[in-house]
Amino acid sequence: FSESFCSSALVLRGSGQCETDLNVSATQQRRVMDQNGVRAFEKYTYTQDGGGPDGYPYQTDYPPQEEDAASDATEGADEDDQMYEGEYQGIPHPDEIKEARRAARLEAKRKARLTAQQEEEEENLPEQYETIMEDCGHGRFQWMLFFVLGLALMADGVDGFVVGFVLPSAEKDMCISNANKGLLGLLVYVAMMVGALVWGGLCDKIGRRKCLIYVLTIDLVFSFLSCFAQGYGFFLFFRFCSGFGIGGSIPIVYTYFTEFLQMDKRGEHLSWLCMFWMLGGLYASFTAWGIIPHYGWGFAIGTQFQMHSWRLFILVCLFPALAALIGVIFMPESPRFLLENARHDEAWMILRKVHDTNWKAKGEPERVFTVTNIKTPQTQEDDFIEIQSDTGTAFQRWTVRKMTMLQQVMANVMSLSAPELRLQGLLLVIVWFCLAFSYHGLGVWFPDMIKYMQYEEYESKVRVFHRERVERFHFNFSLVNQVHREGEYIHDKFANIEFKSVKFENSLFENCYFEDVKSTNTFFENCTIKNTVFYNTDLWQEKFKNCRMDNTTFLHPKKGCHLNFQEENDIVIYMVSFLGSLAVLPGNIISALFMDKLGRIRIIGGSMLASSACTFLLLLSFSQGVVICWQCLFYAVSVAAWNGLEVISVELYPSSKRGTAFGILNGICKFAAIIASFIFAAFIGITKIIPIFLAFVALVCGGLVALKLPETREKILC
Fold this sequence. Notes:
This protein has 22 helices and 20 strands. It is elongated and about 125 Å long. Helix 6 runs antiparallel to helix 11 (about 320-330), helix 8 (about 250-260) packs across helix 21 and helix 9 (about 265-290) packs antiparallel against helix 17. By secondary structure, it is of the alpha/beta class. Helices cover about 60% and strands about 10% of the residues. Mean pLDDT is about 80; it is low at about 1-85 and about 380-390. It is a multi-pass membrane protein.
């Protein structure tokens, strides 16, 4: 038992993991060389707790034995048999023990040295990377990337306006009910929220550039399919998938661009980048006003496929995303992401390309990229995936990779709750939620309030006809904004006219003839219709409520919903959106110029508190023109807070968690927008005090909390 345990102890000690205090003693024969060069054997005693001065086994000399005094047990045994007996006992050689202990000490020193080196490299990488970016300079490469990523941000801005612009036409073209109409806007925002969470986490694992290509491709494919979807279900599904794709663009774009900027350029140029979201709003508003009202720009294939102008508008809105996708394909991956994933050579090549592109454009092509070595942190995640990829079927390898990636993303999310990140993360969540709640809530309230004012004005001009009797009359003029109660229409003809916001209540139609009649918001309630013919009209079942029909004929009816592109209210909404987007321009310019001079915290806090003061002016909104003016003022002041918040969000978090954190914050922004849109829309036509008060409280709370955030103006990217 002792000999066997000693052998086990030797193995464990050789790996530097185990020691034992057992006292083991044994005698073993060792092969030696005598003076004549002839092999012989001598005995030594091995003890674990004593022996030599250093605790190692020592050799004990015995009196030489006579040849005939040998043990009977070993008599006749040759040298090989004796050697095998000693090895079988498992008693180690003294030199082997020394070598094992020496190897254990060297291994421990090596591990300690690697750990210290890794910690040092992780601490030095941000400083070294900042030095490299300063050496590369800011020039042509950053401006090319600026415009490419700006187009991606512009595509996100366009998608934010598309649903609002096409909904009035789409609800008539596809006969969407009021309940389903609200579902479209809700699902698009939910998709954007989920997209921000998913793609923000993935860009920290598979790369900024690759994720941005995926995001833009998904948006392009499903937005294109939504142009041709004839059913509301397919249209809803395609817009949801498109929102899931483009929802990840904002976290990726800001993370991507930040890692190509040096410290003294970040605040200003990230603020300039925000202007592209404004350009997306301008582009969407202008093209909607220029395309949607023109019915003649559409076409039809048979009776089942209708391509109206609002579908062409969606098609035109794809151009920014398409241009961004083409540009991103020719852009390199973020070198900071590559360094964080121990891809040193790829990062070095990209940094040299940035250096050479900038200095060549500045007229100094002779400047040489002097960086020869970049310290990178050691990572084992990729090694684990590659080890798993050597076994199993293709599906098993794919499953292992995806599950491992999911585990890494979730681990990254959980690491954001670390003590050093917990407080600043909570403060950022509060500020993001408060700003998004007030901004998007009022963004819904402004156009809805204008529509309500238009409706009230329109209703005030309605003409009411009571108990009129019209007999053998030819109506060859349109009826607009009228109510006819208890009227009688005998042997009358309605031909080539339009009913717009007309209601017939408790009326009688006898021996009448309707031909080529178009109607908008027109209804017949509790009417009696006798011996009447409807020829080629859109007056169908949904237009008649509780009506009694006797001998009534419908010939070539225009079933379903039909568009009316001549409504003036749509033009006003396009103009309101256009002016609201244009009003952001001064705020963008001011915030970009002063972001690095005043600091992020002052910009965010000052902008939100000033915006809260602007909300009280909304109480003085008694006309459409005044509402539009206060809307432009609010957007101009609040945009600075958005710019500062987006800058500080990418600067506070380390590179390995930057995309994940920004994705979560942007997802919270979309969640706040969903809540605000329901709350603010519910009070339209009831009261404007509650929405204004909610926006004021949210902005004040967010502005005060923002003042507690750490300043990152002179912070090197971690």
